[in-house]
Amino acid sequence: MAEEANAALGELIPYLARLLNKELSDALRPLGLSPAQYDVLEFIWSEGATSPKIVIERRAVEPSSVSGTLSRLERDGFVTRIPDPDDRRSLLVKPTERAIALEAPARAAVLAVLTKVTQGWADRSVDLFIRAVRRAIQQLERP
Questions:
Q1: What are the domain boundaries of the chain?
Q2: Could you give the CA distance from residue 77 to residue 134 in angstroms, rounded to a whole number?
Q3: Architecture of domain 15-141
Q4: Helical residues (DSSP H) of the chain, grouped into ranges
Q5: pLDDT in tens, 58-103
Q6: Residues with Cβ within 8 Å of residue 116, at least 6 apart in sequence
Q7: Which residue, among 71, 46, 72, 73, has the nearest Cα to 58 in the 3D structure?
Q8: Phi and psi at residue 49, in whole multiples of 5°?
Q9: CA distances from 4 to 12, 70, 78 (A)
């Protein structure tokens, strides 16, 4: 049974990730954002000006991915790089006024997609799903 369940998870989790990415892409495209850009902006909106290194650590993504995403965000006018007041050799990224204006509509677009995932579910089912996902993440984050 465990082997069959794990095989099913091996198919279902990547499929769910692809479906979510497509839905999020469709929802964010009118705002000029991709899911990866939203993920970085969401962190910056929450944390304020921060170093790319912190984004990489907290989002658990490859440095080259964050670097490319930040470059696109800067090119498109969503973030700007500023000197780190604590270390003049380093730069921080901060949201521009354009990005700040998009925060509420972008969060609403993402929430609409995530709400669609659990539409019609009982509160208990949503809670169990969230706990299961958190536990899976914890399992994978262990050294």
A1: 15-141
A2: 34
A3: Orthogonal Bundle (1.10)
A4: 2-28, 35-47, 52-59, 63-75, 97-117, 123-141
A5: 888 888 998 999 999 999 999 999 998 888 888 999 999 999 999 9
A6: 23
A7: 46
A8: -55, 130
A9: 12, 41, 45
Instruction: Tell me which residue of 92, 116, 93 sits closest to 41, measured CA to CA.
Output: 93
Structure-derived torsion over alpha carbons of residues 78, 84, 90, 96, reported in degrees to the nearest 10: 0
Neighbours of 43 (CB within 10 A): 17
- Residue entry with tokens 């998870």: 9
Total residues found in the chain within this entry: 143
What string of DSSP letters covers 102-120?
A: HHHHHHHHHHHHHHHHTTT
pTM attached to this predicted model? 0.87
pLDDT in tens, 99-110: 999 999 999 999
Query: What is the signed CA dihedral for 29, 26, 37, 136, rounded to 10 degrees?
Result: 170
